[in-house]
Write a structure and sequence with these properties.
Blueprint lengths: L4 E5 L4 H7 L1 E5 L9 H4 L9 E6 L2 E8 L4 E4 L14 E16 L5 H4 L23 E4 L1 H39 L6 H11 L3 H8 L17 E4 L8 H5 L4 E4 L1 H8 L3 E3 L5 E3 L2 H9 L14 H13 L10
Parallel strand pairs: 1-3
Antiparallel strand pairs: 1-7, 2-6, 3-4, 4-6, 5-6, 8-9, 10-11
Helix pairs in contact: 5-6
């Protein structure tokens, strides 16, 4: 699922929206006319990235956790927006505060050429905020630039945002499965349980894998049934395929699921960077010798996807 980028100008509602975990706008301007930057709230999808701008700074990065809903103006706005209509659109957002806020004026030479021609969140000439713009759609190029500016001091914020984005996308897929008219209730239950490493998927995986490949733990009750190709991007057949899985200790599952480690076709461990190596060492996980145990042909096909699309050789919310 493609991720879109947005830039929200909070102005006086910044604190309430960050604390409350949302963005909100009226459906129309005070004079009754439509506002394209209000309407943008209806275009946000779960997993989209939102940059929060207030007081001349980008101070938070958020992930939309679901689509918009119609909602009354939040009580915590108080007197702010007293001339707004009381009915509007609300999008739930999982916010992460930046330790080092970005001042767009300081990067106007690189940000300016990428600003949208219409409904720009800041003015290209001065870098001042555009008071008439609430939620602006920005290009993937500008989104990636803002990520790069964020990444230097706040890499961990981007890591958390990536996780939230993946979780939100999986929630959308699960809702689609649960409402699919061509699936029976038993099949729906098995597909949803597979997301959690349970049910038919786990039983199928136990026919293929017998222990954690890093900790060598064999006791099933201490192991997680982890998809190699992520559940959210699988076909229904792949979601239940035991060859699309590994039995992993919970902490190892975390690293594999989020792409900090992967495996070669021969069974060699691949580690994304020094941070991941340090975590493995802190956990006392010993890197297994080369060629510990190879995989089946079907597992290799799934591992190829994991190495190309999940393993963090180069981290970006949008590649």
């Amino acid at each position: 699922m493609a991720i879109s980028y947005w830039w929200v100008n909070h102005k006086q509602t910044h604190a309430a929206e960050i604390d409350g975990g949302y963005i909100w706008s009226p459906q129309k301007k005070a004079n009754g006319q439509a506002n394209a930057t209000y309407l943008n709230l209806t275009k946000v999808e779960a997993g989209d990235v939102v940059f929060s701008y207030a007081s001349g700074k980008l101070m938070a990065l958020g992930i939309a956790t679901s689509r918009h809903r119609i909602a009354q103006k939040p009580e915590e706005f108080g007197a702010s927006g007293s001339n707004w209509d009381s009915l509007g659109w609300l999008v739930p957002i999982e916010w992460q505060m930046l330790k080092s806020p970005i001042v767009p004026k300081q990067h106007l030479g690189s940000i300016g050429p990428l600003l949208p021609e219409a409904h720009s969140p800041i003015r290209k000439e001065t870098g001042d905020g555009n008071q008439g713009c609430y939620l602006a759609a920005i290009s993937p190029e500008l989104g990636r630039l803002l990520q790069c500016l964020t990444e230097i001091p706040d890499r961990e914020v981007l890591d958390v945002a990536e996780e939230r984005s993946a979780d939100a996308a999986a929630d959308v897929v699960q809702a689609e499965i649960e409402s699919a008219p061509h699936l029976g209730p038993t099949e729906i239950e098995q597909l949803v349980r597979a997301r959690r490493g349970q049910g038919r998927f786990r039983l199928n995986l136990l026919k293929v894998e017998k222990r954690c490949r890093l900790t060598h733990v064999e006791l099933e009750q201490f192991l997680v049934a982890s998809h190699i190709k992520p559940w959210a991007v699988c076909t229904n057949e792949e979601r239940l395929d035991g060859h699309n899985g590994l039995l992993l200790a919970p902490h190892v599952d975390r690293l594999f699921d989020r792409g900090w480690v992967s495996f070669s076709d021969a069974g060699d461990l691949m580690v994304a960077n020094d941070d991941a190596r340090a975590v493995l060492a802190a956990w006392g996980v010993v890197v297994p010798p080369a060629g510990m145990r190879s995989f089946s042909d079907r597992q290799r096909a799934y591992l190829s996807y994991h190495r190309e699309n999940v393993f963090r050789k180069s981290f970006r919310l949008v590649s």
